[in-house]
Design goal:
Structural class: alpha+beta
Helix content: 40-55%
CATH class of the largest domain: Alpha Beta
Shape: rod-shaped
Strand content: 15-25%
Largest sheet: 5 strands, antiparallel
CATH topology of the largest domain: Heat Shock Protein 90
Strand order of the largest sheet: 4-3-7-6-5
CATH superfamily of the largest domain: Histidine kinase-like ATPase, C-terminal domain
Distance between the termini: 23 Å
Order of helices and strands: HHEEHEEHEEEHHHEHEEHEEHHEE
Number of helices: 11
CATH architecture of the largest domain: 2-Layer Sandwich
């Protein structure tokens, strides 16, 4: 998944998560309020069963109450009475004066569910009649309603449908808002990616984010102009230096072959020539890596066979007067003989040449350089290694980084690994390949180029 799509997917999911968290928080708050109200309210806890048990018949057949009855009623500011089958009060305790002592069946039906003279009442069957216990006025709120079972079911289904509809509407609104934001922000994010890759960007300067698009276009144009000026400057300097350098190398070559000069003078001329050739190679590498970095080097695509290409580079080194202290060993597997890609043969040769040349330059005491081509079923692997002095772990980390921009020479005008590795990486990546570097101090240096099959 691309970074832009991943960003908006996370944005949408985070908004849905916020809504879910909001609903959960409201549920928690609702039950918290219920719990708080229940714990802090003064709810009378009149024990109807104790009151019922405390009222009994004595030996004479009259209803009497135990002492616990008065304690319960006094504690809760309540009263109690028992009605017989005719609705007559046959027992009472703390019964308010304003309440009647005789009740009809209709009166009983009413207050058993509601109130009796604004007193909340509770009823319970007693062996001698109907026990009625009344609480203090305003101490209880009693409500009663009844609906049909069908209505109750439909009401619950309707409420659930309303709740789900609200959730769906909220999610759709979030999705719509996300799409709106994505439509406005995606060009900006893609523009940033384009600018970061060094490519020109042109965003429409309209809409809510027109000012940001305008500034991004301005930044992209400035970076492109700066990169172009830098590449042109490097190209111009390279050209200006190569011309006098060619003249110097021509005269030095004549001095080196002049037998009338002393041997020491001819040796000095030879040393100047070698350093001049290194400088010319360095200028060429600098110009090429600059053009690759700014995508100014067109690839001349043709079918390239890796084994044949590697053999040509090795032969050029061997035929070019390689000193005896250096040995080059070439090896290729049978499967790799037909391995090929569509690529720029000159650039690929340049990459292999730089790797071998680095091994020669950085091992002045000599070394064995191994070049191999292998096929692992999916990729062609070209390995260039030596058994020389290697590099330190710190230097290896720098070489593996992709930011070794234009690290070139030291005070002795010797090519470092930095520029050579950068150029090799640029060439390989232009062919959709990868570069791996392995090395330890005094244990050699190895570069592995991996080219995927049928990628070009």
């Amino acid at each position: 998944m691309k970074p832009v799509e991943r960003f908006f997917r996370k944005y949408f999911l985070s908004m849905v998560g916020i809504i879910a968290l909001f609903l959960l928080l409201n549920v928690v708050l609702f039950f918290s309020v219920l719990l708080w109200a229940w714990q802090t309210s003064e709810t009378p806890e009149i024990s109807i069963s104790k009151i019922c048990d405390s009222i009994t018949l004595d030996e004479t057949g009259h209803l009497t109450a135990a002492g616990v009855l008065d304690e319960i009623l006094e504690e809760h500011h309540a009263w109690a009475m028992i009605l017989d089958d005719t609705g007559t009060v046959i027992f009472q305790s703390k019964l308010p004066e304003e309440l009647p002592r005789q009740y009809t069946a209709a009166d009983v039906a009413k207050f058993s569910r509601w109130y009796l003279g604004d007193y909340p009442v509770y009823v319970r069957e007693h062996p001698q009649g109907l026990l009625v216990v009344g609480g203090e006025k305003g101490s209880q709120a009693k409500y009663y309603f009844s609906v049909s079972e069908s209505y109750a079911r439909k009401l619950l289904v309707g409420l659930a449908a309303v709740f789900l509809t609200n959730i769906i509407v909220v999610v759709l609104l979030i999705w719509k808002n996300t799409r709106h934001v994505e439509k406005a922000v995606t060009p900006i994010l893609r523009g940033i990616e384009t600018v970061s890759s060094g490519q020109p960007v042109s965003l429409p300067e309209k809409g809510e984010l027109a000012e940001i698009n305008r500034q991004l276009n301005k930044a992209g144009a400035f970076i492109a102009k700066k990169d172009s000026a830098r590449a042109d400057w490097i190209s111009g300097v390279s050209h200006d230096v190569r011309t006098p350098l060619s003249v110097i190398l021509g005269f030095v070559g004549q001095l080196e072959e002049d037998q009338t000069l002393p041997i020491s003078a001819r040796e000095q001329a030879s040393h100047i020539r070698r350093q001049g050739e290194k400088l010319r190679s360095l200028i060429s590498d600098l110009n090429l890596t600059s053009r690759l970095e700014y995508s100014m080097q067109p690839l001349r695509m043709e079918k390239v066979y890796f084994v044949e290409l590697a053999r040509q580079v090795v032969c050029e080194f061997l035929d070019g007067g390689l000193e005896a202290r250096y040995q080059i060993v070439f090896d290729s597997s049978q499967e790799s003989e037909t391995a090929s890609i569509m690529g720029d043969e000159a650039l690929l040769k340049r990459a292999l040449y730089n790797l071998i040349q680095n091994s020669v330059i950085h091992n002045p005491k000599g070394c064995v350089i191994s070049v191999s081509v292998a096929w692992n079923g999916n990729n062609t692997v070209i390995t260039v290694s030596d058994n020389g002095i290697g590099v330190s772990a710190e230097k290896l980390d720098k070489l593996r980084a992709t930011t070794n921009h234009l690290e070139s020479t030291d005070e002795r005008l010797k090519l470092r690994h930095g520029l050579g590795v950068l150029l090799v990486r640029q060439i390989v990546e232009a062919h959709h390949g990868t570069v791996e570097i392995l090395s330890e101090p005094q244990r050699g240096y190895k570069t592995v180029l991996i080219f995927p099959d049928n990628e070009i």
